[in-house]
Every structure is written in structure tokens, then in C-alpha cells.
Amino acid sequence: MESLAYETTTNHSIDLSHLQNFAIREAENGFVVALTDDEGFESVRGFGNTPTEAINDLHSNLI
Description:
Elements: E1 5-7, E2 13-15, E3 22-27, E4 30-36, E5 42-48, H1 51-62
């Protein structure tokens, strides 16, 4: 599984496990990333072969 810690262009570390209302899970064919409400309802999803691809897909679904 891909690491959930990423470096930004200004050398700040982002730990995706600390993001609120954001779910990442490994599925049968890759990863699913979702924005969730406080009860866990998924409002928008993204899919990809890696968590990064899934986040980018989620972002594309929003814009």
C-alpha cells in the first residue's frame, strides 16, 4: 500500500490519515477516496490505482 504521508513543494508533510471527513480504502481493483459527512455518508468518490490517483479523480469530479 502506498504511504499516506506526502511531501508538498514547500517541504510540509501531509498525513492523509489526519484529514477530517476524508476516507481512503483499498478496493478489489484499486483505491477509493471519499468525502464524508459527520455520520460517514459518502457524498463524492474518486477511484484510482493508487491513493493519489483516487484523490485526483475525486478532485476532477468536483470541478
